[in-house]
Amino acid sequence: MEITRKAPLGRPRGFDADEALERAMMVFWEQGYEGASLTDLTHAMGITRKSMYAAFGNKEELFRKALERYTEGPAAYAARALEEPSAREVATAFLAGSVSATTRPGCPAGCLGVQGSLAAGDSGRAAQDALITWRDDGRARLRHRFQQAVDEGDLPPGANPELLARYVMTVSNGIAVQAAGGATRSELQQVADAALRNWPPV
Amino acid sequence: MEITRKAPLGRPRGFDADEALERAMMVFWEQGYEGASLTDLTHAMGITRKSMYAAFGNKEELFRKALERYTEGPAAYAARALEEPSAREVATAFLAGSVSATTRPGCPAGCLGVQGSLAAGDSGRAAQDALITWRDDGRARLRHRFQQAVDEGDLPPGANPELLARYVMTVSNGIAVQAAGGATRSELQQVADAALRNWPPV
DNA sequence: TTAATTCTGCACCGATCGGTATCTAAGTTT
DNA sequence: AAACTTAGATACCGATCGGTGCAGAATTAA
C-alpha cells in the first residue's frame, strides 16, 4: 500500500482537458446544446471524437461539465455578488455582473445558462432541464440571501425575498436575451440601473 | 381577359392551411427552430412533407410564417398595448400581456420570439436573425410610442424613450425566460408589478 | 523485453436530418 | 370525356447526426 501513483497507466492524453472543456463551453455558449454538433465541438477542442468520449463521457455530460465551468468562470459574478454586505449591493453586483458577463469581448454574447437550451427537441430535453435547474438554483441562492437580509434588518420586515429574487433573476435573464440580440454593455448597464432605481421595489 | 378565377386549377388542398400553420407555430414555440424536425412539424400539421413544401416553401419560410401568425395571435397584446392612452399604461399592458401570453394554458410556456432560436448552429442562423429583427422591431415600436409620450407631455421632457423601451423589453424577455422555466402567471405578474412600481424609472 | 494499459486517428455504424422524385387519385376547365 | 393541374402517399436522396470498433502508438510496471 501507500504506493503513490506517480503517473496514470497507459499512454498519457495528448491534450489539456481543462482547455478542451473551455473551448467546448464557448461552442455551447454560442450555438446552444442542439446547435453544437460533435464535429463543431471536437474541432474547437482540437481532439477527436474518441478522445472526447474517453475524457468526458458523451455530449450530454460534456455539456454538464461545460456548464460547471461556466458557473465557476464567466458566471462566477453570481457567487461573488451574494457576498456583498447589503441586499441592495447584492442586487446591484448581480445585475452588473450579468451585464459584463453577457457582453464580454471575445466571448459569445448572452448567457450560456439561458441560451444553451431554452427550447429544445427530444435530444435536448436533458440539457434544457439542466439549465432550468441551474437557473432555479441561482434564484434560490438569491432568495436565501435576501431572506438573510430581512432577518438582519437590512431589508424591511415586509419585504418578500421570493419576489425580490425572482425580480432580480428576471431582469438578469432579460439582459441575457438583450445581449444575445446585440445590445451593448453600456445600454444594458443603463437598464440594470433603471431596474434598481427604487430598491426594494415593494 | 376578365376571366374571374372562381377556383384555383387542379385538385384543391385537402387541409386548412391556417390551422396547419397554427399547429406548426405551436411546435416551433415548444421545441425551437432547430429542435423542431420536419417529422414533428408535419405530424402535428396533419399533412405530408410534400404538401408542406407546396404550401409554405420550406422549413425556414414555414418558421417565418409561423412567427407572423404568432405576432398576430398570441403576441397581439404588444400592438394593443401601444394604443393605451399613457406611457405608464402602455408599459403596464405590455408586461401584463407578456405574462399572460407566456403562461397561457394549452400553449407552450415562454415566448416564441425568444426561445424560437436564441442560440443556433449554422442551420438555425436565419431563424435566429429573424427573431432578433422581430424583437428589435417590437422595441422600436415601444420607443416610438414613448417618444410620442414625451412629445405629448405624458412623460417628462428628460425621459429617455430609448432606455424606457429597452427596459420594458428586457423585463418582458426575462419574463419569457422565467415562464419557460416553469414560473406561474401570478408569480410573473408580481414581477411585472414590481418592475413598474416607479415609472418611469428615471 | 514483455505484458498490460490507455490514448489517437480513421473508418464506420444505424438513425435522422431537410428536401425531393414518382406515382396515383382527385378535382377543374374546356 | 379529354386535358390539365395539384394533393397525397411512399420511397428515396445525400448529408449529417451522435456514437463506436479497431489497429497502432505510447507509456508504465514487471
UniProtKB/TrEMBL annotation, chains A, B:
Keywords, sorted A to Z: DNA-binding, Transcription, Transcription regulation
DNA-binding region: 37-56
Pfam families: TetR_C_13, TetR_N
Domain HTH tetR-type: 14-74
PANTHER family the UniProt entry points to: HTH-TYPE TRANSCRIPTIONAL REGULATOR YJDC (PTHR47506:SF1), TRANSCRIPTIONAL REGULATORY PROTEIN (PTHR47506)
UniProt name for this protein: TetR/AcrR family transcriptional regulator
Organism: Streptomyces viridiviolaceus
